[in-house]
Amino acid sequence: MHIVILSASVRQGRSSHRVARFFNQFIPAHYQQASVELVDLKDYDFPLFEERLKFMDNPSGNILSFAQKIKQANGVIIVTPEYNGGYPASLKNVTDLLYDEWRRKPIALVTVSAGPFGGTQVMTSLLFTLWKIGAWVVPAMYPVPRVDEAYNENGDPVDKEATEKKAKRFLNELTWCMEAAAKMKQ
């Protein structure tokens, strides 16, 4: 099983990337059956959305590379901050860019905020968008309140025991969905 961790923020000083780093370290240490790849949207510098990939005449190598990573993943963890109740334009951009690559793909949501609600307000809008494109959003969610206090820059959690317990429940749900999706394809 291959999991792509999609770090959605491209903003300077982004805190959500701390949580993406945590999962990038945690998954190989606790889920030997899964490989993991951190895909950072900041590395891609995508132009604003103009057209879906399948309708592009001459897509860039960056777009094709990104699409291939999502297509080959058995599951995706989207790590996104909440910006004024919504998710960043960088995430909306790549959500709209692809279609077939998202269809029936198990996707788990990690939302973060500097405040006490952990980005839970962004879940509704992101969930609706993912449903509209046919993605399979797993029922387990992973909200992170006060992210700057909960994780350091390297992705190390302040409360390691509680964080790992929560992460295992979250990842168990994602891996169950990934296994179910694989069985349905057979």
From TrEMBL:
Lineage, top ranks: Bacteria, Pseudomonadati, Bacteroidota, Chitinophagia, Chitinophagales
SUPFAM superfamilies to which the protein is assigned, alphabetical: Flavoproteins
InterPro entries: Flavoprotein-like_sf, FMN_Rdtase-like_dom, NAD(P)H-dep_reductase
Name of the molecule in the record: NADPH-dependent oxidoreductase
Domain NADPH-dependent FMN reductase-like: 1-142
Pfam families: FMN_red
Cellular component terms (Gene Ontology): cytosol
GO molecular function: FMN binding; oxidoreductase activity
